[in-house]
Amino acid sequence: MASAIEVLRTVFGYNAFRGDQAAIVDHVADGGDALVLMPTGGGKSLCYQIPALLRPGIGIVVSPLIALMQDQVDALLQAGVRAAYLNSSLAFDEAVDIERRAARGELDLLYVAPERLLTERFLNLLDRLDERGQLALFAIDEAHCVSQWGHDFRPEYIQLCALHERYPRVPRIALTATADAATREEIQTRLGLTEARLFVSSFDRPNIRYEIVDRDNPRKQLLAFLARHRGEAGIVYCLSRKKVEETAAWLETQGIPALPYHAGLDAEVRRMHQQRFLREEGLVMAATVAFGMGIDKPDVRFVAHLDLPKSLEAYYQETGRAGRDGEPAEAWMTYGLNDVVVHRNRIDESNASELQKRVERQKLDALLGYCEAPRCRRTVLLSYFGETSEPCGNCDVCLNPPEVFDGTIAAQKALSAILRTGQRFGAGHLIDLLRGRSTDKIRQFGHESLPTFGVGGEMDDQGWRAVFRQLIAHGIIEPDSSQYGALTLNAAARPVLKGETTVSLRRQQRPSAGKKSRFAGYASAPAIELDVADQQLFEKLRAWRQDVAKTQAVPAYVILHDRTLRELAQRRPRHREGLADITGLGEAKIERYGEALVELLNA
């Protein structure tokens, strides 16, 4: 039997495992169960693909998304692995043919949707394979879908515990890129993996730079951010379907090729837009969270949020769709007080149990704490997942540290304004009161006669909005959904008003003109620097790859990754034998493309 490192080299074209990969592969190949927490782009797929190739029989991979299955299978076929998928995109006769190939032992890996896996027809196929000892393993990808309180809950995932009961001798590996301690425990319990070995890799994505800006003309802010990423692929997340469509249309008017994606679009339109994003260069997808899980495009250079996500887990997973190739990428978000009000209202008005509402409020509070923290973004984000780290020197807070000041007096003024107006008004009216604006509404309620009228002239509207946001993040005030987001005092407000405790607030500095005009992030692996001639060759290789991908109707990165092309352009092997030393070129790809590559390199 081939060793794991031989399979890694000859099939996938890599010389060494990364992080925990080798230990995971050995454990599962030896028949052990595993729960793997590894960041997006960390190489989770190899953790079950290689054991499936080492063990006798077929590996069954449970995957929740059609697009992910197609991409994974396309990539495996390129590497010479006998792989297929079963989902609703196939005609009946196509599905029957794949089932027969599986039964005859002609497949190494079979990807299947959870609802298909649990049908009597498919379970009968698994029974026959199990009787012959031909089930290599079960891999449950995107395992966080089992969490009822998670952002990607899939009811069918809960039933996957039946695999252990029905096939106790077959090893199982569950994998996810994001799970806090509570979600991790839920995965172990619901999937019957309490005895499984736990592998937790660092959640750090060092190649992603995080930046959050106070919302002030968000379209103008987004445009300035996108100027750093002209011609590059990225995702812009919005909360509503309407905003998605408006944003995509507006980006087009700005000369930025963009497409909308949300659950309200026709299924065929969604499929076509997703396919274009995967296969074309430099497209921007404006989307709701309906787009993203399982999107395996490695060269997404940025993820932007025009609205606050639901939780830090959601934020981590959505931003994690950038830079899967390990090259520098950016996660950018514009955020305002209204985001907090909208999310609190959504939680309070939902039909969820009080327990679930409390959990969701805690998750939202953690996200607000992240947004408002005056210290390294990466440190705060990783600490949420139980990981300690030093300041990264590569996020907006590290590069442009905010001033922290004693905000007790400002907090007292804000709290007094809330109290004296009966805890019935939102931030806009309270700011008018503090800044002494005699608006129709101020006069209607006689608020110009209050002692707090005009006491906040030392700050502009943006400054006061930041104060109210931070008071919410500190748990001193909160929006009341029953009063359309009116700000109300919590128990923690009393000692602040009485001067018994102090409040530290952050004052966001404006970025200096021209500072960091072009993003320079950190690559996960040593960067490959190309000179002018190498760059020209790299572009020729990309054009060749694009032609090959179009001919085969697959995404370009399925043929070869950018990093492989850069290495080819720099090292320029003159003979086919030299291709084996290039990262990402296994035997099947050398057999298929070696002659064309050598010819192009020698030209």
TrEMBL record:
Keywords annotated in UniProt: ATP-binding, DNA damage, DNA recombination, DNA repair, DNA-binding, Helicase, Hydrolase, Isomerase, Metal-binding, Nucleotide-binding, Zinc
Domain Helicase ATP-binding: 25-197
Gene Ontology MF, one: DNA binding
One example of a Gene Ontology biological process annotation: DNA recombination
InterPro entries referenced in this protein's UniProt entry, alphabetically: DEAD/DEAH_box_helicase_dom, DNA_helicase_ATP-dep_RecQ, DNA_helicase_ATP-dep_RecQ_bac, Helicase_ATP-bd, Helicase_C-like, HRDC-like_sf, HRDC_dom, HRDC_dom_sf
Coiled-coil regions listed in the entry: none
GO cellular component terms listed in the entry, alphabetical order: bacterial nucleoid; cytoplasm; replisome
Residue intervals of the Helicase C-terminal domain: 218-367
Presence of keyword Membrane: no
Cofactor(s) this protein requires: Mg(2+); Zn(2+)
EC number: 5.6.2.4
Reaction catalysis annotation: Couples ATP hydrolysis with the unwinding of duplex DNA by translocating in the 3'-5' direction
Domain HRDC: 531-603
Domain of life per record: Bacteria
EC class name: isomerase
Family: Belongs to the helicase family. RecQ subfamily.
Protein's name according to its UniProt entry: DNA helicase RecQ
Source organism: Pandoraea faecigallinarum
